[in-house]
Amino acid sequence: MGDEYCRGYRVKQSYSEAIKWYTLAAEKGYITSQYRLGCIYYYGENVEKDRHSAFVWYNKAAIQGHVESQYLLGNMYYDGDGVDQSYDEAFKWYLKAAEQGYDYSEYSIGYMYHHGQGVNQSYCDAIKWYELAAENGNVDANIALGKMYYYGSGVKQSYKKAFYCFLNSASQDDYSEFMVGLMYYRGRGVKQSYEKALNRFMRSGKRGYGYSQDMLGNMYQYGKGIEQSYEEAFKWYKLAAEQGVLNSQCNLGYLYFNGFGVEQSYEDSIDWYRRAAEKGNIRSQLNLGYIYYYGKGVEQSL
Q1: Do 182 and 150 belong together in one domain?
Q2: Are residues 52 and 38 in the same domain?
Q3: How do residues 42-93 score in pLDDT, each as one tens digit?
Q4: Which of 64, 86, 112 corresponds to the end of one domain?
Q5: CATH assignment of the domain containing 212
Q6: How far, in Å, are 83, 153, 197 from residue 168 at the CA level?
């Protein structure tokens, strides 16, 4: 009855009636109703958010083996959300769900082994659990494995293994798509191909991923895998620069300074160089020094 009132199926929708029926069923030990009540109170679904009540109902369902409740209970302990923070308790509940093959918990167990949270740090165990989660399609686990293999963090460095980890999650994650493109661009773990790199950067760049937009600007600026175009380079650098990508901000400064792909403007050049320089971009700092030294568009200052 709770589901029917919640969805308005065959009865007039009423969240208060839904909660009443969920509660009646939950108090009799019905696991799904306990879980639903936990979600209702946690997210404040037409009621005031109540982390304590959410914890109580998740805990009841988790004790009975409800896998999603075990995972969510782990999250609450991990973050200290509605309960005293405890990595030990978080690990315990994540493990219960992970042992049932729940990929989010498998990833969380891997993460805690990776960072030594609530358990002795172990790259070996981290990889074991990340791999289990990755085999179940967990995107975060593929990313974590990809980074470990790419940088040789706690594991023998392997661009080839990193490439396939990122490839597995590329269709669902812009960072992974970017990394696949970058590895094609540099020929790391895969045969070098500007064409395939461009394809990957274009996919995530059109979805708004700043670092892919920056690489598209680079490829258009230098004609790598595509016809050279300062106008296109400017377009992609601008999109990335507006998201705070320092390299693109610096490159916009360069394009404005020289009038490449845009009307020449020392004022705009200085503006973009300064934005990047203030965030620590060395190339922008050097270029600003050059501009002030020679008085390009500003009063000379030695």
Answers
A1: no
A2: yes
A3: 998 878 899 999 999 999 999 999 999 999 999 999 999 999 999 999 999 9
A4: 64
A5: 1.25.40.10
A6: 36, 20, 16
Q: Among 26, 46, 64, where does a domain finish?
A: 64
Expressed in angstroms, the distance from the first to the final Cα of the chain is 79
| Side-chain-side CA neighbours of residue 205 (13 Å) | 28
164 and 87 assigned to the same domain? yes
Please return the burial class of 62, using the count of CB atoms within 10 Å of its CB with bins 0-12, 13-18 and 19+: buried
Task: Report residue 39 as tokens.
Answer: 């979600």
Structure tokens at 119: 């358990």
pLDDT in tens, 224-254: 999 999 999 999 999 999 999 999 999 999 9
Query: Could you give the C-alpha distances from 217 to 42, 47, 170, 199, 237, in angstroms and in order?
Result: 44, 48, 21, 13, 5
Tokens standing for 95? 């493990």
Rounded to whole angstroms, the Cα distance separating 219 from 227 reads 9
Q: Are residues 164 and 189 in the same domain?
A: no
Structural domain count, the chain: 4
Instruction: Give the tens place of pLDDT for each residue, 164-179.
Output: 999 999 999 999 999 9
* Residue ranges making up the domain that contains 226: 173-241
Q: Please check whether residue 130 is in contact with residue 98, taking contact to mean a CB–CB distance below 8 angstroms.
A: no
Neighbours of 209 (CB within 10 A): 23
